[in-house]
Amino acid sequence: MGVCLRKQNTVKEENTLLCLNEGLSSTIRNVPIRSIYKLGRILGTGHFGVVKEVQVIGSEEKAAIKFILKDLVEDRINSLKQEIEILKRVDHPNIIRFFEAYEDERYIYLAMELCTGGDLLRLMTKNDHIDENKSKIILRQMLLAINHLHNNNIIHRDLKPENFLFESEDDNAALKLVDFGLSSKFRNRRMSMHKAVGTVYYLAPEMIKGAYNFKCDMWSIGVIMFVMLSGKLPFWSKFDCETCHQILNGAPEFIEPIWENISQEAKNLLSHLLCMNPSDRFSASEALDHPWFNSQPKPRIVMNQFTIDALKEYSKISAFKKEAMNILVKYLSLNEIKSMNALFSDLDEENNGSISMKLLLNSLKNAGSSIAARNEIKEIIKSLDLDKNGKINYSEFLAATYYSKHHIQQEELWLTFLHFDADRKGYITRIDIERAFSRSGHALKEQDIKNIMKEFGKEPGAKIGYDEFERLLKM
């Protein structure tokens, strides 16, 4: 495909200078990174630091850590804080799992899931193009991730092949969206933004003009789809200004010989993504409903008894156990979550990364359940729904189904304990619990703390060792 894909001209965004500690103290741990992780090889480099493979000390668990040099981000502390908040908020099988944020005197560290399959750019450069069937699988996962973001009022603004990683080397490995450094929240879908950020080849025309909304992400997806199918960028020049001029001059035509072998449905979808008018451009939800993806009807989902029983059992455990399980599932291996991911994807009929009460009730109805059982599921959802959005999110679903299997592994339990034991004392206190809940966005009241300590059979000022922690989680 040529070196043009490797040239990355990124427009930078400026932000107001704030005190680093004041801006981030509520979201990160002030803990020496080498007391937690053994540092390994460099996985990649960026504008503000490097990404390294690491291993949790005392564990076989590996992760990826983004090292961000403080001296380089003092003028964009708001963006960094927002990146962390977005990483904490997103929760989807096709978005990187975020573990924790740390800082020391020189760096901010963002610890995330380790993906070992390389990025989409590597797959593109290894082939002249990606065949249509494979492209369809890849693009659907991209759109599912973007649909989740947009439904949560988040715009990515830097979608490109390098920001999609395969979780493993397996041929059927899931694709994960990464790098939320230029992402932003928006209040409503009509809200307009004005600063041009991102990588020039993937910029939407309205972003170049200086007034855009979440639909700019859909243009970028269209560019990626074009490259996957044809092996060439639709807009490219050695000079950024010329590239921008090409983008502003309109959508590309399918005139190269390779397009003769591409289906009309694929070209039709592309025309709705690379659409000059954002109002007429497809949303992620509309793209997912396009006939190119729906050549075969989706089977009617029927909730199996195991899942119903798992949700019932999980709904009865305490708030502390639920929080601990939501942390624990972040550390599950790919093999452990593979079947749960497949079930979640089947139940996520609306393609937005959550399971609605309506979907569950319809599924129970299809299974021939009684009205009493359907009323019971309403109460179950209320109990499981930690963030009170009326739906079961991805992590909530994983936690419920994994907990019900009664084979919680020692490795994951230890890593969950370390999440609470931030400074590696060997025990946790009420303050550790309060801080851990706070980092997850859940504020605890005094009575909540008393109830949690009571679960351990402890007074509020007591220490909780690992054995006590393990015993409670396995009860």
UniProtKB/TrEMBL annotation:
Listed under subunit, the entry gives:
Monomer.
UniProt organism field: Blepharisma stoltei
The EF-hand domain, residue ranges: 335-370, 372-407, 408-443
Provide this UniProt record's keywords sorted from A to Z.
ATP-binding, Calcium, Kinase, Metal-binding, Nucleotide-binding, Repeat, Serine/threonine-protein kinase, Transferase
Ribosomal protein: present as a keyword of the record?
Answer: no
What cofactor does this chain's UniProt record say it requires?
Mg(2+)
Q: Which residues form the Protein kinase domain?
A: 37-293
Question: Can you name this protein?
Answer: non-specific serine/threonine protein kinase
What PANTHER family does the record point to? SERINE/THREONINE-PROTEIN KINASE
What reaction gets catalysed by this protein?
Answer: L-seryl-[protein] + ATP = O-phospho-L-seryl-[protein] + ADP + H(+); L-threonyl-[protein] + ATP = O-phospho-L-threonyl-[protein] + ADP + H(+)
